[in-house]
Each structure stands twice: as C-alpha cells, then as structure tokens.
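Tokens for chain A. Residues wanted.
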C-alpha cells in the first residue's frame, strides 16, 4: 500500500530541498512540489486584499489547488508509487487533499525565526518572501491548531542529511 507524506512549513524551512533529496534516495516516491502547481495558475494566487490583515493575507484558490494536488497524488498512488506532497499550503488546501487522499504522515519543518529569516534572505529575488512574510508564516504554523497533528522538526541546526535521515527513520521503518 502506498504511503503519502505531507511536508509543509514556512518559506525557507527547507521543504523543497528535503523532499527532492528524500525522493532522490527513495525511488518508490514521487514528489509533488506545490509551487509548480501554483505557477500553473498564478492569477489564482493574487492576494484578496478585501480580507487582508497584518496577520494573514488570504488567497483565492487554496481549495482548487488542493483538489488538483489530490488528483495528481491519486494518479501516482494508482501506479503503485509512494508520494510526498511538499509546500506551503493553508488548511483549506490540505482539507481538499485529505478528502480524496489519506495523508499517512504529516510533517512540519519549522526552523527558529532567525534561521528562517536568514535562509529566506539567501534566496533569489524572485522567490524571496521578506522578513515580514517569513514571520507571518512562522506565526501561522505555530498558532493554527490544524497543524498540531503534524510532526514538527526544528530544522535550524539540522543538515539536509540529518533531516532526510530523520524522516526516513520516522516514516519508512514502520510495520
């Protein structure tokens, strides 16, 4: 039976890097990078400024994104592959995915704030979020009760090797 691992966290937490390395080492896994799907319909992720607050900027298409991710995940599962879904998603998207796909393992990569800001600052300009957005993401994952069921890993002092090994130990050595 196929396994589905969900990896989420704020911008700069290491989600994509970890998922890519994990799938490189574990050939039975397909990696669904949420950002690739967001780029397919970039206008759907324009900010809905009518509901914006300092704490949260809603987007218009989380549910649709979740449905699309579920379709792709189900196709991989139907072919006998395990799946990693990696990316920043809000609750509405995760709920849409979980409607059709069982999330066997849920992982939250959450470095400390200063490490998170530093990593974001090292990104290229086209994907850099900025300190305010990084802190908003940190706050979102720390205070949204939906993520209480996710296994949190502080990636601040972990190497890529350490994080990938930890995920394998947590999720692949089960009976």
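Reply:
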């Amino acid at each position: 039976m196929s396994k589905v691992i969900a990896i989420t966290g704020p911008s700069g937490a290491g989600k994509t890097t970890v998922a890519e390395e994990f799938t490189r080492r574990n050939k039975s896994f397909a990696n669904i990078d949420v950002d690739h799907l967001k780029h397919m319909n970039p206008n759907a992720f324009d900010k809905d400024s009518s509901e914006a607050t300092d704490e949260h900027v809603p987007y218009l298409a989380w549910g649709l994104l979740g449905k699309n991710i579920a379709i792709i995940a189900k196709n991989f599962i139907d072919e006998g592959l395990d799946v990693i879904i990696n990316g920043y998603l809000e609750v509405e998207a995760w709920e849409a995915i979980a409607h059709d796909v069982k999330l066997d393992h849920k992982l939250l990569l959450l470095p400390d704030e200063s490490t998170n800001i530093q990593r974001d600052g090292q990104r290229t300009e086209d994907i850099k979020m900025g300190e305010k957005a990084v802190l908003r993401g940190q706050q979102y994952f720390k205070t949204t009760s939906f993520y209480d069921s996710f296994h949190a890993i502080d990636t601040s002092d972990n190497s890529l090797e350490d994080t990938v090994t930890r995920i394998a130990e947590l999720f692949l050595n089960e009976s």
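The mean pLDDT is 86. Residues 4-169 form a domain with the Rossmann fold fold (CATH 3.40.50.300).
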